[in-house]
Amino acid sequence: MRIYPFTEEYALYLRDESRSVGEAAWICFPACEEDVREALAFAREKNLCVTTQGGRTGLAAGCVPHGGLVLNLSRMDRVLGAEREGDAVLLRTQPGVLLTNLRKAVAALQPEYGALFFPPDPTETTASIGGMTACNASGARTYRYGAVRRHVEGLRVILADGRSVTLRRGEQMASGRCLRLRCDDGSRVFLPLPSYRMPSVKNASGYFVKYGMDAVDLFAGSDGTLGVITEILLRLMTLPAQIWECGLLLKTEAQALELTDALRRSCPRLASIEFFDAGALRVLKDRKAKDASLRAIADVPDGVQALLFVEIHADSKEEAFGELERVTACLKDCGGDPDRTWFGWNAAQTARFKEFRHAVPESVNMLIDERRKTHPQITKLGTDMSVEDKDLKRVFAMYREGLAELGLQSAIWGHIGNNHVHVNILPRDPDDYRRGKELYAAWAQRVTDMGGAVSAEHGVGKLKASFLETMYGPRAIGEMRALKQALDPRGMLNPGNLFFI
Ligand SMILES: Cc1cc2nc3c(=O)[nH]c(=O)nc-3n(C[C@H](O)[C@H](O)[C@H](O)COP(=O)(O)OP(=O)(O)OC[C@H]3O[C@@H](n4cnc5c(N)ncnc54)[C@H](O)[C@@H]3O)c2cc1C
């Protein structure tokens, strides 16, 4: 495999979707595990740090290099095959397989294995399964099916020193707070697990640690700091016979919050509850007016101040109808109008809703890109925090109060079913950016005080390292560092992720 000096032609590989830009001296594109080993040996010999990249769709700058060697895994893009284990179907893949191709591969299994699916859906289908595993990504359907970690059955990982580890769920377990990791060559690495308690909310902040935990759960969600994931074994699920989706158009945000609570209480067949606020709908409307490629995206009627999408997964039409009736009843109880809904009951129709949902973040990114032409130092400030059910209204009040006080433009959307919305502060100039950053830091502290998480799905990467310390405190950060050092004493892999260098 060739390792190239980093030149202008690779500029693309210095950034991800957070719009942060890094620097690098070398870049390589391994096609197999042996290539990864070779790249790591090169880095060790030259004393370089290594930044692993998947699809570069991350929003926390996790794959943005801090010098050294870029290890881009986009060529490790083969689906290696399916296997049965009892009633379950497992799919083995290389890490560079994009979500869109993973879905095609799962659909192609149907004649032999039946209709299956991989539930996590982080909206952006050019994300790679390696990146999704490293971030423990989630998305809309996590409301019902959990994040990626829950669907990972096994991993192969190459450590900084070149040793490989093959993990199957249930085979390498911690004893209390200590994990004696067995490498493929029979050697062992003693891993001291941190002592912090993870919050009971949706969470992708720092290492997963639990008494007696599984080693698979440690590497999944480790933001690429502990090793390079070279193979993933996924547990697939049976595709629900009926997947229906509704868009509930609401007159107020307060109605959306009430309705979320009601849906959670009354509707057991929902796979997701997604939210868009008036600010997000406005940015989309403005972008639509300028961009012909968005013409097919549905228009939102005037007067709509909030939009909830709910996805129903059911085993039969009767069951799906029953759930739809319950959704409608909740909507009426919360003062909504059942005639003001969008409804899709087949793949083509629900795909249009997905396009709508995806067009919102894309429109926001384009708006910020335009503003960056005048103010290159600003970026979107997108939060990723989650709280418990009881704190949903409280956290919304906190967001609204802060934004109004500082007069900042914003667009809020996301996974309200998990009390996890992305508040996107949209700075107009460097002053807005500075004040927005201060506001975000203050929110991180208050969410921590509520027992929430500072990153619920995007991972901590480089952008939220200070919030991780806010959430867990300096002692826990020290314990996380000690864990990393046991596997990567020189701090070679993904420096800057999780903790400052
Ligand atoms: C429009 C849009 C919408 C999005 N919506 C969601 C959403 O709803 N939910 C959600 O969870 N995310 C969402 N994301 C964020 C993003 O898609 C996810 O974070 C995804 O998991 C990143 O995958 P990637 O392959 O692009 O990883 P990258 O950005 O390339 O890398 C992410 C991190 O993983 C590490 N990494 C990558 N591959 C490996 C590997 N093989 N071994 C070890 N470490 C590795 C990198 O070093 C980095 O730290 C969205 C992004 C966009 C642009």
Q: Name the CATH architecture of the largest domain.
A: 3-Layer(aba) Sandwich
Structure summary, number of beta strands: 21
- Overall form: globular
What's the main sheet like? 8 strands, antiparallel
Tell me the name of the CATH class of the largest domain: Alpha Beta
Return Rg in Å: 22 Å
Q: Provide the residue-averaged pLDDT.
A: 96
Unreliable stretches (pLDDT < 50, length at least 5) are none
Q: Would you tell me the structural class of the helices and strands?
A: alpha+beta
What's a quick, concise take on this entry?
The chain is an alpha+beta fold. It is 35% helix and 21% strand. The strands form five sheets. Strands 14, 15, 16, 17, 18, 19, 20 and 21 form an eight-stranded antiparallel β-sheet that branches.
